[in-house]
Amino acid sequence: MQLGKLPQTGRPVMDFERNKKIGIFGGTFNPPHNGHYYLAKKALEEFSLDEVLLLPVGLPPHKMQDPVLGRELRRRMVELLAEMDPRFRLCTMELERDGYTYTIDTLRAMRRQLGPGTELYYIIGTDTLFELPTWKEYEQVFSYTTFLCFPRPGDSMARVRRQIAYYQEKFQKTVLLSRHLGPEISSTEIREMFVNGEPLDGLVPDAILEFMEKNHVFR
Ligand code: ATP
């Protein structure tokens, strides 16, 4: 059984596919930052996940206006993030797909290849919570996964709770809200600071910062 290029660690596929709670953390990772690291770690702990698949997206339709680094550069940076915890794994499924990538296609492909006992949890921040209705076949997405949502600084919690209640009523599906507030870090901010030569200590993992400097990304 094959799950795209899902396992990057050399561990056999069978190892992770039965009766497990798998977190899927999709993102542009343009670049990955300590906010991503924090979310992935907290998701593992708080929701007792067995592992988190770090899933760099190919060409996200709604982000085409941003200067998105190429797939290979983002893949290598997310690989560095994946090395920070043995329960993180890089999933290159979407990077390998041509053109736009849609979460529903990824979830369907995963579901086809994973045993029915495997539960899929999709990790998002509250900004993404509000964007879900713009996703392709978003109603279907809810039938494939449970969302784990992390509050993002600046997002109104009253509005977040209303949105979650709306999804609950529409899909009879609970969005699990983390008790951990995501740190005040975004890739947008990192890109700007990096281009301006501002120090990024504490905002980006050292290995990724080194990679960004060596490869002159965003410049
Ligand atoms: P950009 O600034 O380019 O939009 P980003 O920092 O939001 O990027 P993405 O790779 O787009 O990073 O994020 C992937 C997912 O992680 C999204 O669901 C986003 O909401 C969530 N996320 C990223 N950073 C944080 C954070 N600091 N707190 C909470 N959620 C976050």
TrEMBL record:
<dbReference type="GO" id="GO:0004515">
    <property type="term" value="F:nicotinate-nucleotide adenylyltransferase activity"/>
</dbReference>
<keyword id="KW-0067">ATP-binding</keyword>
<dbReference type="InterPro" id="IPR014729">
    <property type="entry name" value="Rossmann-like_a/b/a_fold"/>
</dbReference>
<protein>
    <recommendedName>
        <fullName>Probable nicotinate-nucleotide adenylyltransferase</fullName>
        <ecNumber>2.7.7.18</ecNumber>
    </recommendedName>
</protein>
<dbReference type="GO" id="GO:0009435">
    <property type="term" value="P:NAD+ biosynthetic process"/>
</dbReference>
<feature type="domain" description="Cytidyltransferase-like">
    <location>
        <begin position="24"/>
        <end position="192"/>
    </location>
</feature>
<keyword id="KW-0662">Pyridine nucleotide biosynthesis</keyword>
<comment type="function">
    <text>Catalyzes the reversible adenylation of nicotinate mononucleotide (NaMN) to nicotinic acid adenine dinucleotide (NaAD).</text>
</comment>
<comment type="similarity">
    <text>Belongs to the NadD family.</text>
</comment>
<dbReference type="GO" id="GO:0005524">
    <property type="term" value="F:ATP binding"/>
</dbReference>
<dbReference type="InterPro" id="IPR005248">
    <property type="entry name" value="NadD/NMNAT"/>
</dbReference>
<dbReference type="InterPro" id="IPR004821">
    <property type="entry name" value="Cyt_trans-like"/>
</dbReference>
<dbReference type="Pfam" id="PF01467">
    <property type="entry name" value="CTP_transf_like"/>
</dbReference>
<keyword id="KW-0520">NAD</keyword>
<comment type="pathway">
    <text>Cofactor biosynthesis; NAD(+) biosynthesis; deamido-NAD(+) from nicotinate D-ribonucleotide: step 1/1.</text>
</comment>
<keyword id="KW-0547">Nucleotide-binding</keyword>
<keyword id="KW-0548">Nucleotidyltransferase</keyword>
<keyword id="KW-0808">Transferase</keyword>
